[in-house]
TrEMBL record:
<dbReference type="InterPro" id="IPR018060">
    <property type="entry name" value="HTH_AraC"/>
</dbReference>
<feature type="domain" description="HTH araC/xylS-type">
    <location>
        <begin position="230"/>
        <end position="328"/>
    </location>
</feature>
<keyword id="KW-0238">DNA-binding</keyword>
<protein>
    <submittedName>
        <fullName>GlxA family transcriptional regulator</fullName>
    </submittedName>
</protein>
<dbReference type="InterPro" id="IPR009057">
    <property type="entry name" value="Homeodomain-like_sf"/>
</dbReference>
<keyword id="KW-0805">Transcription regulation</keyword>
<dbReference type="InterPro" id="IPR052158">
    <property type="entry name" value="INH-QAR"/>
</dbReference>
<keyword id="KW-0804">Transcription</keyword>
<dbReference type="GO" id="GO:0003700">
    <property type="term" value="F:DNA-binding transcription factor activity"/>
</dbReference>
<dbReference type="InterPro" id="IPR029062">
    <property type="entry name" value="Class_I_gatase-like"/>
</dbReference>
<dbReference type="Pfam" id="PF12833">
    <property type="entry name" value="HTH_18"/>
</dbReference>
<dbReference type="Pfam" id="PF01965">
    <property type="entry name" value="DJ-1_PfpI"/>
</dbReference>
<dbReference type="GO" id="GO:0043565">
    <property type="term" value="F:sequence-specific DNA binding"/>
</dbReference>
<dbReference type="InterPro" id="IPR002818">
    <property type="entry name" value="DJ-1/PfpI"/>
</dbReference>
<dbReference type="InterPro" id="IPR018062">
    <property type="entry name" value="HTH_AraC-typ_CS"/>
</dbReference>
Amino acid sequence: MSTQAASHSQASCKEPAPQTLGFLLLENFTLFSLASAIEPLRMANQLAGRELYRWFTLSVDGGPISASDGLRVTPDGAITMPLALDMVVVCGGVGPARAVQREHISWLQSQARLSRRLGGICTGSWALAKAGLLDGYETSVHWECLAAMRESFPRAVLTTRLFSIDRDRATASGGTAPLDMMLTLIGREHGRELSAGISEMFICDRMRGENDHQRIPLKHVLGTTQPKLLEIVALMEANLEEPIGLEELADYVDVSRRQLERLFQKYLNCSPSRYYLKLRLTRARQLLKQTSMSIIEVASACGFVSTPHFSKCYREFFGLPPREERLGMSPLRPPVLPEQPSQGLLLQQPLELQPVPEQPISAALVALDNARGEPTYASVRLDH
């Protein structure tokens, strides 16, 4: 073997094996959420100029599955395919309680026994929770499904965050939230330069993080049974720059201050002043991330007369001061990373050695080959 060939061989050996993801499609899954999860993986491969990720779509028997928009999608195969998966992501959509079958539950439980990372997008969390695989885990799900999941699976720690990464579980709400979750996972595994490059390719003005929450319509939370509370919140939202006093708010809707306090505690689990502060700080966060306004201007626009007081409130609520938020730094509370082997294909197996089945060809290789002529191909240099 020549010196050049040996050098190339050694360099190739240093490259970790690509991670393999299996996307389990439930009947009436949301096609938009599936694309939001897979496209960042495709772009990661393109920008790196090599296969960092490969993916397969699966159904119980390998037969076509209907998306929520009526399109019929033929997956790559059945859940019985001999795949060495690093991660399984359940793709849900409309009516997850009806879509989850016994076969889904059994297979997901078998994947958990193999120590594979598990995820859910849109309402895919429902299947994981039904299988008992989200007990004690922070879990995100589309807001439309949130109340039903809290009722059905009290052991899962439901949150309104866009996505949640808790140890070896990763769940995202719906729409474009899977894109943000995948960008976060890619950034942790291969560096911020790659995740930022993917974001630029998809014309994302910013990458949303784990501390970003879904904006849940209050009417969905309360229904139409509390019109006075809805009116008060609307007044708060319309008066963030010059907050209205609680006495004045109560007068507007013809209730007493005490009644106002009780309404918020009963239906929103916080005091009216705390809720008002949350609205102002959430607005401040949007301005910090999406405008060039100075911190002083942001504080003033959100009803804070003192910049130090604004910074103190912001830090207590979000875990980092406004200046660090603008710089894109992480919160003070470090994320809990799953303990996973660096070589994704080296999974826990029984002591008896089994022959490794031949792996099917992933669509990732086709996509990577098609991207070779693109100007951005291999434009991001990785350290590994």
